[in-house]
Design a protein that fits this description.
single chain; Rossmann fold; 11 helices; 13 strands; globular
């Protein structure tokens, strides 16, 4: 059986150590703040990034670069490896289409190359969790086709529960409408958003007070996991420079459900630019995704 590798993009918000340990390529999205553009090896310190946003800087973001993705794909193909690439939700970024463009460029040069580009319909650590699960299957000896089939069959069972401090960041980036931002930002309420079956961000509910919001995230695992409970031995939590709140949620999940492992990571700048400082998200396997309220 020909060896294959997984790859994804930086919207998955997975730590660098994860990519290095499992040899998973990460295709960089890009962001610009205070007139300077960052991506690939040029990165702003994550705490500096959020400090600038809190101080009023307004970052902008772009998707992956097809030429960068082409270079990464070609390197793997020339090394005799097939590729499964798990991309950020197509309706929220050009990254999926850019990966498809890169794939087609590779096939022009290497027509026998085997590359599958998957629209994850996920983002942040939900996308990361999907890659993690796929990697576990790869390590267990599953075939290329078995891993692709599992991803396609299970990607809509990845749940994202995202507690946001201020919806105006998402509105400014075009991820939600102005009317939704106004409704969701009633004084004293913390909006909860997630990703629906189409890969769009939607409003789920509003909770009065941060502590209640964090507890809502903890409860959401039990309320939504259903028959997928036995697959939630590992749960991912991302935060926008709010580690203490993320750890509160993680410890609460461990205590309530006996979860073996909680993986914490920062929202990368390209995601943090839209959700804003203070946001906390939980990703886990769940029965079905919610509809917009």
């Amino acid at each position: 059986m020909k060896p294959f590798v997984l790859s994804t993009d930086s919207a998955s918000d997975m730590p660098k150590e994860f990519h290095e340990k499992y040899d998973i390529d990460c295709h960089s999205l890009f962001y610009t703040i205070d007139g300077e553009t960052y991506g690939n090896d040029k990165q702003l310190d994550i705490k500096d990034f959020y400090a600038r946003v809190r101080a009023g800087s307004i970052p902008t973001t772009t998707g992956t670069n097809p030429e960068d993705s082409y270079d990464k794909f070609v390197k793997r193909v020339e090394n005799g490896q097939d590729i499964i690439h798990v991309a950020f939700s197509e309706v929220m970024s050009a990254s999926y289409q850019n990966a498809v463009i890169a794939k087609n460029m590779v096939l022009e040069k290497y027509p026998d190359a085997k590359i599958t580009v998957i629209d994850s319909k996920c983002g942040t650590v939900g996308q990361g969790l999907l890659v993690h699960k796929a990697n576990q299957l790869r390590l267990a000896g599953k075939s290329y086709e078995e891993v692709v089939d599992w991803i396609e069959a299970n990607k809509l069972h990845i749940g994202h529960q995202i507690l946001v401090d201020d919806l105006n960041h998402l509105c400014r980036g075009g991820r939600i409408s102005k009317s939704k931002a106004i409704i969701g930002s009633i004084v004293g309420f913390k909006p909860v958003i997630n990703i629906d079956d189409s890969g769009h961000l939607i409003n789920v509910t509003k909770i009065r007070g941060q502590k209640k919001g964090l507890n809502w995230l903890i409860d959401s695992v039990g309320n939504l996991q259903g028959s997928y409970a036995d697959q939630n031995d590992t749960i991912f939590i991302s935060h926008a420079d709010a580690l203490e709140n993320a750890q509160y949620v993680g410890e609460g999940i461990k205590a309530k459900y006996g979860t073996k492992e909680i993986l914490y990571s920062y929202f990368s700048p390209t995601i943090g630019a839209h959700v804003g400082p203070g946001t906390v998200a939980v990703a886990f396997m769940q029965e079905t995704r919610e509809k917009e309220n």
